[in-house]
Specification:
Elements: E1 4-7, E2 10-13, E3 18-24, E4 33-39, E5 46-51, E6 58-60, E7 68-73, E8 78-83, E9 92-99, E10 108-109, E11 113-118
Parallel strand pairs: 2-11
Antiparallel strand pairs: 1-3, 3-8, 4-5, 4-9, 5-6, 7-8, 9-10, 9-11
Length: 119
């Protein structure tokens, strides 16, 4: 069982930055690919980005590419997402998720953290 807890959300003006963190339980954290997703009001949850277990590979949705950066610290069982040049359309609840088998299927989810970008 893996427990994930996000933090770092808040209210920021357009053009600003936020850094989200996700703390994970479990001894085998470094084996899990980790993903970030978001869900805006009235919209479906969407993929934001992903990082491999080693941290050597990342991928991003086109909507955030060049603005968001995902990193991880396997020694601290944390994954982070630096969000720069935020736009009002980035407003959403952000979730981290774990893909323990590197199958593309995310088995464990955090409770989410709210990010609000004002114009």
């Amino acid at each position: 069982q893996v427990q994930l807890v996000e933090s770092g959300g808040g209210l920021v003006q357009a053009g600003g930055s936020l850094r989200l963190s996700c703390a994970a339980s479990g001894r085998t954290f470094s084996r899990y690919a980790m993903g970030w997703f978001r869900q805006a009001p009235g919209k479906e949850r969407e993929f934001v980005g992903r990082i491999s277990g080693s941290g050597g590979r990342t991928s991003y949705a086109d909507s955030v590419k060049g603005r968001f950066t995902i990193s991880r610290d396997n020694g601290k069982n944390t994954v982070s997402m630096q969000m720069n040049s935020l736009k009002p359309e980035d407003t959403a609840v952000y979730y981290c998720a774990a893909d323990p088998y590197n199958s593309g299927s995310y088995e464990y989810w955090g409770q989410g953290t709210q990010v609000t970008v004002s114009s």
